[in-house]
């Protein structure tokens, strides 16, 4: 296991003390490696005898039909294309740790969110939430301030994000023209927006840890 991941898991445990429920946020721009980091941190906590579950923010993408109606399909992933109210409701329910909460999961291969696709049990002590806008300081996203008990910001250099985003979209067999539109017309501008409007994190990393 990566020593830095183990160190962060130790810091999370120290901060958690005897808490029944502890929320960790992993935020950052598209392509930063949030989901990988979340899975690795969950495994590190489990290796220390803890229970942990990952809750991705991507499940709260608005449906494509709504985005088409609003003229936002090409900008899918910007702050305005998520169900922020629904996300806030779920996070607040999860925080209580008094009942099972079913959360949506995003299926990237079909570009849609699947409702009630992952259970978060009250027995899961650590909930690792990962997503672009968890530390975003603008709009309704700012209401997340103070919700998380520990926060990690992934902030790779723009040139690293650019390389990863090209690899992501080529991996979905997009044409060069379509991938170019995704990278330069949407994802990189979103990345800059996130990096320029973020609240301080407990830990900031340039590279997601494996």
TrEMBL record:
Record key words, sorted: Hydrolase, Kinase, Transferase
InterPro entries xrefs: P-loop_NTPase
KW Nucleus (keyword) present: no
Gene Ontology molecular function, alphabetical: hydrolase activity; kinase activity
Gene3D superfamilies linked: P-loop containing nucleotide triphosphate hydrolases (3.40.50.300)
Organism superkingdom: Bacteria
Pfam families linked to this entry: MeaB (PF03308)
Hydrolase keyword on record: yes
PANTHER family tied to this protein: URIDINE KINASE
Name of the protein in its database record: Nucleoside triphosphate hydrolase
Originating organism: Rhizobium ruizarguesonis
């Amino acid at each position: 296991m990566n020593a830095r991941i183990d160190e962060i898991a130790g810091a999370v445990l120290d901060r958690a003390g005897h808490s029944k429920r502890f929320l960790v946020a992993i935020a950052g721009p598209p392509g930063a490696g949030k989901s990988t980091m979340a899975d690795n941190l969950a495994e590190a906590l489990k290796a220390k005898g803890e229970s942990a579950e990952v809750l991705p923010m991507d499940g709260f993408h608005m449906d494509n039909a709504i985005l088409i109606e609003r003229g936002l399909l090409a900008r899918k992933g910007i702050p305005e294309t998520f169900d922020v109210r629904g996300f806030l409701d779920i996070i607040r329910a999860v925080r209580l740790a008094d009942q099972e909460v079913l959360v949506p999961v995003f299926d990237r291969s079909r570009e849609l969110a699947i409702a009630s696709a992952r259970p978060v049990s009250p027995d899961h002590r650590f909930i690792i939430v990962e997503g672009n806008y968890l530390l975003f300081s603008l709009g309704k996203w700012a209401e997340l301030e103070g919700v998380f008990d520990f926060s990690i910001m992934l902030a790779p250099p723009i040139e690293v994000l650019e390389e990863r985003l090209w690899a992501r979209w080529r991996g979905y067999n997009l044409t060069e023209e379509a991938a170019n539109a995704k990278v330069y017309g949407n994802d990189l501008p979103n990345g800059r927006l996130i990096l320029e409007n973020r609240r301080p994190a407990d830990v900031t990393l340039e590279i997601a840890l494996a």
